[in-house]
Amino acid sequence: MSLIDKNLIAAHNDRLLRHVNNDYAHLGEQLARRGIDIEAVRAKVAAFGVAIPSWGVGTGGTRFARFPGRGEPRNVFDKLEDCGVIQQLSRATPTVSLHIPWDTCSDWSELRQAAASHGLAFDAINSNTFSDQKGQAHSYKFGSLTHGDAATRAQAVAHNIECIEIGQKLGSKALTVWIGDGANFPGQQHFRRAFDRYLESAQQIYAALPGDWRMMLEHKICEPAFYATVIQDWGSSFMAASALGPKAQCLVDLGHHAPNVNIEMIVARLIAAGKLAGFHFNDSKYGDDDLDAGSVAPYRLFLVFNELVAAAHEGVSGFDPAYMLDQSHNVTDPIESLMTSAAQVQRTYAQALIVDRAALDAAQDANDALVATQCLKRGFDTDVTPILQRVRFDAGGAIDLVGAYRASGYRQRVAEARPAVAGGGGGIV
Ligand SMILES: [Mn+2]
């Protein structure tokens, strides 16, 4: 099933293809002079995918307000359609990451079929114990997996196990756990006891994991607990993942760190320890801003990818990170932002792929700081756009993502079919 008319994409591509081919040939020559085979880079970029968060296709919001967009998805089936459009045009987003209970539905096999009809599969499933759901017996106002009350903890554990069961029906292979537990006042919480309770609860969830599943622990420095968060940084996350066992790993959300933290170095440490679960890509200027990936600090994103490409290049055992976007779109059409961000992640991957690793190693060995850093800059400064355009074209996607999307009239169509609804999950974690 095609959500966007294939003829429209083809007509749009036809107008651009000659230029793309010329640009690609020129870039190929430039890279060849540097000893790089553009076809090898293209093949790796074509095989790269980043998951779409189901919550990302709705308009986000802040603590102050949410300004809904037109034709917002009303349910998980609508969300899958929007994800299908992103995948049809970008060819970089073959999977969707669901959030329970925001994405609850009555027939999971029907949902799996709907996803398949849009060319989509399911990535990690996300639990939610950071807000109360209708009819819930115990409130999470003062915590979930770390709550002082055993019945509240048991309820949160049971929800996570239910998420695993749903994920199994959908073909997921991972559970992502992020909790909002923590304290808003000094003295409110006994730090060590709260962490012990987290481990005890997490162990029960871990015990329910199927053999081929991973448990991804997502840390966050603050919010909603503004004084102290139980799993606040990669240290706590690593302690928990180590205590739980080999199937537990640490997920890095780029927005969940203190300002100016060297995230690429955290990534390197987690790779070294065999504990890097994967990423939630986004960008930030001040805090957990959930801005579009690479929109503010593209070089920081590049330095993260430099570590990832280096690990793959060096054949680090067990290295298999999961890639997801996690953004809040307050002023853009979420489909446009997600397509652009997926392409940005692809772009950054390609830039890291063309770093001369042998030259970088030699410069490091010779203590030649200037040449070493130039090796990285040379990758980052290279405009790899023609590679991305060719990858999309070859796979049946759109050379010009936003141009083709706007020409398709998809947003106007769904705006008519989907009357505005109040509420819905606006939370971004
Ligand atoms: Mn996240």
Q: Domain count, please report it.
A: 1
Number of helical regions: 15
Straight-line distance between termini: 32 Å
Question: What small ligands are held by the chains?
Answer: manganese (II) ion
The CATH topology annotation reads as TIM Barrel
Proportion of beta-strand residues: 5-15%
CATH class: Alpha Beta
Measured as a percent range, the helix fraction is 40-55%
Radius of gyration: 22 Å
Overall number of strands:
11
Q: Would you list the SSEs in sequence order as H and E? A: HHEHEHEEHEEHEEHEHEHEHHHHHH
CATH superfamily: Divalent-metal-dependent TIM barrel enzymes
Sketch the major β-sheet.
6 strands, parallel
Mean pLDDT: 96
Poorly predicted runs: none
CATH architecture: Alpha-Beta Barrel
Protein name: L-rhamnose catabolism isomerase
GO molecular function: isomerase activity; metal ion binding
Pfam families: AP_endonuc_2 (PF01261)
Keywords: Isomerase, Manganese, Metal-binding
Describe the protein.
This protein is an alpha/beta fold. It has one domain (6-417): Divalent-metal-dependent TIM barrel enzymes (TIM Barrel), CATH 3.20.20. The protein is 48% helix and 9% strand. It has 15 helices and eleven strands. The chain has helices at 6-33, 38-46, 76-90, 108-117, 150-170, 191-207, 234-244, 263-272, 298-313, 334-353, 357-365, 369-380, 385-394, 401-408, 410-417; strands at 52-53, 95-97, 121-122, 125-126, 174-177, 182-183, 214-218, 228-229, 248-253, 276-281, 322-325. A six-stranded parallel sheet has the order 4-5-7-9-10-11. Strands 1-2-3 form a three-stranded parallel sheet, covered by helices on one side. The chain has a two-stranded antiparallel sheet with strand order 6-8. Strand 10 (276-281), helix 9 (298-313) and strand 11 form a beta-alpha-beta unit. The two termini are 32 Å apart. The model has no long low-confidence stretch (mean pLDDT 96). It binds manganese (II) ion. Manganese (II) ion is lined by residues 218, 253, 280, 326, 429.
